[in-house]
């Protein structure tokens, strides 16, 4: 080969290499942006877009831009399964963030090993990561941690007899199983175990039954709109036993739906919605306030715990890709599993081969709704 031919070959190789290096890192996302869980999925969608824009404006990851390919499952299981299949097979993404809900997540986790792509769910069911699936992680703290934190608080009130009212979907079923285990385990008596449907518009029958059993406290486990119905019915019946909620209602949407009946309700929730009330020097405070300010300026809306889950997922993916030095899905998976000390909106993540959530009950604060806002219970 003569000199000019060699130079031409080198230029072709250099051009191809530069083009390859400039290819974006394709990240998939599947959220319930519409449908019954849209109050969860919409802030997740917004937060992921905001995170990707911030990363790209700062030079991307490994010098490459991030490309988000996002689908709306409309809070439907079948659409979620099909969307994840499309992300994996057609779009050839390197990792997937979502789904939004526990039920939709549980419908797809078994497929991730076949796809060979890591998934970071934004849902909270313990079953998502127990037992550990090598390809599946989640950023929402587990239901059992929220329940432990809430039961710790209820202990301080002197209550002994607890009734539960749970929704009959994936989130409610997971919470119900954890409540059934932890209530007696932590020294309480479970006096009523009632269930309502996700589309029910009245729960007075279940609450009337609970009132007849003289419960000291009632724990409702669900996501909107059901818990708002429970709160209104609880107020209408004039029940004396205090009503507690799960972290599944930690958004302003619950207050909007429940109206005055939300006042005084106590629940476990992440620190994002009470960031300004944290003590100075708290390891999450600066990041939480920065995220809250950025979200409010861009979307003209209050932050929610759920939007923070998508932000955390992108933050963790960025850290994993940088640690791996590659966007190879297996390398990302391995790096995710070894991440520790990552400060997110939900807590400080410490993943391991045995723990694909990386959080514990310290991720939660006990919060009371007062005057249409969130207040940490000191």
TrEMBL record:
It holds the Pfam family Peripla_BP_6. It comes from the Bacteria. Keywords: Amino-acid transport, Signal, Transport. Residues 1-21 form the signal peptide. GO terms for biological process: amino acid transport. The keyword Transport applies. Residues 24-358 form the Leucine-binding protein domain. PANTHER family: BLR7848 PROTEIN, LEUCINE-SPECIFIC-BINDING PROTEIN. Belongs to the leucine-binding protein family. This is Branched-chain amino acid ABC transporter substrate-binding protein. The lineage of its organism: Bacteria, Pseudomonadati, Thermodesulfobacteriota, Desulfovibrionia, Desulfovibrionales. The gene is livK-1.
């Amino acid at each position: 080969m003569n000199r000019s031919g060699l130079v031409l070959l080198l230029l072709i190789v250099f051009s191809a290499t530069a083009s390859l290096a400039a290819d974006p890192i394709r990240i998939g996302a599947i959220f319930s942006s519409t449908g019954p869980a849209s109050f969860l999925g919409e802030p997740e969608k917004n937060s992921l877009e905001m995170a990707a824009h911030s990363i790209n404006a700062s030079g991307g990851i490994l010098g490459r831009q991030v490309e988000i390919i996002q689908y709306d499952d409309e809070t439907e299981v079948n659409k979620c399964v099909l969307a994840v299949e499309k992300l994996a097979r057609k779009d050839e993404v390197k990792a997937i963030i979502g789904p939004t809900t526990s039920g939709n997540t549980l419908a797809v986790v078994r497929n991730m090993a076949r796809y060979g792509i890591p998934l970071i769910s934004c849902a909270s069911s313990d079953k998502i990561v127990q037992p550990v699936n090598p390809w599946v992680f989640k950023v929402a703290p587990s239901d059992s941690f929220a329940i432990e934190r809430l039961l710790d608080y209820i202990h301080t009130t002197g209550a002994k007899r607890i009734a539960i009212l749970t929704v009959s979907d994936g989130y409610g079923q997971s919470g119900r199983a954890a409540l059934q285990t932890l209530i007696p385990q932590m020294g309480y008596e479970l006096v009523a175990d009632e269930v309502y449907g996700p589309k029910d518009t009245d729960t007075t029958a279940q609450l009337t039954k609970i009132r007849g059993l003289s419960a000291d406290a009632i724990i409702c486990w669900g996501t909107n709109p059901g818990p708002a119905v429970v709160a209104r019915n609880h107020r209408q019946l004039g029940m004396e036993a205090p009503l507690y909620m799960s972290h599944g209602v930690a958004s302003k949407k619950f207050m909007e739906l429940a109206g005055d009946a939300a006042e005084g309700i106590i629940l476990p929730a992440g620190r994002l919605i009470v960031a300004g009330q944290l003590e100075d020097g708290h390891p999450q405070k600066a990041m939480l306030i920065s995220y809250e300010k950025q979200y409010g300026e861009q979307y003209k809306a209050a932050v929610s715990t759920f939007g923070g889950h998508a932000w955390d997922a992108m933050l963790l993916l960025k850290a994993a890709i940088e640690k791996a030095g590659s966007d190879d899905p297996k390398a990302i998976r391995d790096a995710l599993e070894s991440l520790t000390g990552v400060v997110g909106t939900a807590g400080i993540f410490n993943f391991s081969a045995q723990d694909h959530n990386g959080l514990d009950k310290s991720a939660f604060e006990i919060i009371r709704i007062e005057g249409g806002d969130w207040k940490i219970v000191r």
